[in-house]
Write a structure and sequence with these properties.
The chain has helices spanning 2-55, 59-73; strands at residues 84-89, 92-97, 100-101, 104-105, 107-115, 120-129, 139-149. It is of the alpha+beta class and 152 residues long. It has one domain. β5 (107-115) and β6 (120-129) form a beta hairpin.
Length: 152
Amino acid sequence: MKLKAQNVIEFSFVFIVIMSIFLAIIELTLYWRAQFSVTNIANEIIANVQIKAQNTKVESEIISAAQQALKKSAGLVNLSDTNFILSGSNGNYSIKSSFTKLGAPALIALVNIDNLDTGDISVGVVYTYTGIFLYREGKAISSGSAQGIQKY
């Protein structure tokens, strides 16, 4: 009888350790997926803005292209049905998701097109990641600044 009880106790300890490792692997995979998705969103926005800026110099049309690209790409971080709110002027714009995490917009894109004459465009994307175990209080994942120079 002692041997069965000992086996159950040993199995319980080993099972807890193995499940913890397994869940940590899943959590880190989700985190890295979110990080790569944010970079892809920034690259998608910068590509669409550059294409639009080569065809027109009207800021409202260019920023509209950025907003549409963000809306299309938001599915990468499970925000495909979210509305995005545009704010800003004079070449500096922010596009924020209406969906919030921890009291702040879950996804924000910062678009700088104030230097269209020289062709400098930059885009930064920030996503609030909330994990299952690790980052339950939230962690901001940013893309860095994706920059492009238009070639005519």
